[in-house]
């Protein structure tokens, strides 16, 4: 556990320090989010936080290779799989950086996601088995495993991109999910003597650290956005860390102890960890399709926007969605590991408290009204549908492109003109 804690702290520290560098690069390259009608930030904010997060992940990986316990697992392809995930993550992060700077179209961005997910498949990080009833495992051929892997990885990347709409929201949700999955991998490794679970534990510990290191710069009021370079990176690493677990069960029975859950959870975990953004993604596609619009178009009707509408401040809306992520992800992990009846009561109680805070709290306590409702933004004039903010001391650092609103985001804080869906 101490070595995993060190991995977490290295990723946190390096990410925190590199955000300053990432912000400077964003300002120099014009990768700055202008303020649009559907955004809730009131001034241009630099992108490219994904570069800092990638640096934190790589640093954690390098340090882990030199730790006694983790380093001794290299013969079991622990670091091989982790290296493959980071390589694919670097690829999709590069696509995101290009999008944050030059504003790629949705189809090109989707192509980059397919390429990164395909790299995972080509290098062996994919689904090998799919769980069936009565503990039966269905062996997947190469085509089936590749298709399922592409769906899960690309779907997770886009779900994270969709939820990246409020300061600190995506980093917090993914960080909570990564921490829950780390706990799952650690317990599986301990209870079932599955040493290779260290791959998933290593990746999830590093991912949780990278998200924690980025949050001080990204929580409201944000000084840096992760952009598509960050949202696609952490979405890929989260889903791929679950995929690394499935390769261990070639020829192993699924009925011993908790082994069935070990096989089932990598399929369900990315969905459960990102249940809220996944639901948001599906609702957005249905809503836009029924309205005769492209599902890749953007709007201001995401779940986090609706929380603002019913009376939550921006910070409280983020905390509410963090609570949903915590309840669902930890609930899924605990239920998979413990079969006692009290677990269901505990998860049900957490769910009830979260529902009450979501819908009752705005009726009991509303944040002070501003000229922009409850978005948490200062009261300013609205000119041509955009928020006009008085000049801030740091605004002198912004490039002319950012000040003129040339660079635009996809999603509420992402890059590009629209949102890519799987």
UniProtKB/TrEMBL annotation:
<feature type="compositionally biased region" description="Gly residues">
    <location>
        <begin position="412"/>
        <end position="422"/>
    </location>
</feature>
<dbReference type="GO" id="GO:0005886">
    <property type="term" value="C:plasma membrane"/>
</dbReference>
<feature type="transmembrane region" description="Helical">
    <location>
        <begin position="260"/>
        <end position="286"/>
    </location>
</feature>
<dbReference type="InterPro" id="IPR000715">
    <property type="entry name" value="Glycosyl_transferase_4"/>
</dbReference>
<keyword id="KW-0812">Transmembrane</keyword>
<dbReference type="GO" id="GO:0016780">
    <property type="term" value="F:phosphotransferase activity, for other substituted phosphate groups"/>
</dbReference>
<keyword id="KW-0479">Metal-binding</keyword>
<protein>
    <submittedName>
        <fullName>UDP-GlcNAc:undecaprenyl-phosphate GlcNAc-1-phosphate transferase</fullName>
    </submittedName>
</protein>
<dbReference type="GO" id="GO:0046872">
    <property type="term" value="F:metal ion binding"/>
</dbReference>
<feature type="region of interest" description="Disordered">
    <location>
        <begin position="387"/>
        <end position="422"/>
    </location>
</feature>
<feature type="binding site">
    <location>
        <position position="161"/>
    </location>
    <ligand>
        <name>Mg(2+)</name>
    </ligand>
</feature>
<feature type="transmembrane region" description="Helical">
    <location>
        <begin position="46"/>
        <end position="64"/>
    </location>
</feature>
<dbReference type="GO" id="GO:0009103">
    <property type="term" value="P:lipopolysaccharide biosynthetic process"/>
</dbReference>
<dbReference type="GO" id="GO:0071555">
    <property type="term" value="P:cell wall organization"/>
</dbReference>
<keyword id="KW-0472">Membrane</keyword>
<keyword id="KW-1133">Transmembrane helix</keyword>
<feature type="transmembrane region" description="Helical">
    <location>
        <begin position="342"/>
        <end position="361"/>
    </location>
</feature>
<feature type="transmembrane region" description="Helical">
    <location>
        <begin position="317"/>
        <end position="336"/>
    </location>
</feature>
<dbReference type="GO" id="GO:0044038">
    <property type="term" value="P:cell wall macromolecule biosynthetic process"/>
</dbReference>
<keyword id="KW-0460">Magnesium</keyword>
<feature type="binding site">
    <location>
        <position position="228"/>
    </location>
    <ligand>
        <name>Mg(2+)</name>
    </ligand>
</feature>
<dbReference type="Pfam" id="PF00953">
    <property type="entry name" value="Glycos_transf_4"/>
</dbReference>
<feature type="transmembrane region" description="Helical">
    <location>
        <begin position="169"/>
        <end position="187"/>
    </location>
</feature>
<feature type="transmembrane region" description="Helical">
    <location>
        <begin position="110"/>
        <end position="131"/>
    </location>
</feature>
<keyword id="KW-0808">Transferase</keyword>
<keyword id="KW-1003">Cell membrane</keyword>
<feature type="transmembrane region" description="Helical">
    <location>
        <begin position="194"/>
        <end position="215"/>
    </location>
</feature>
<feature type="transmembrane region" description="Helical">
    <location>
        <begin position="76"/>
        <end position="98"/>
    </location>
</feature>
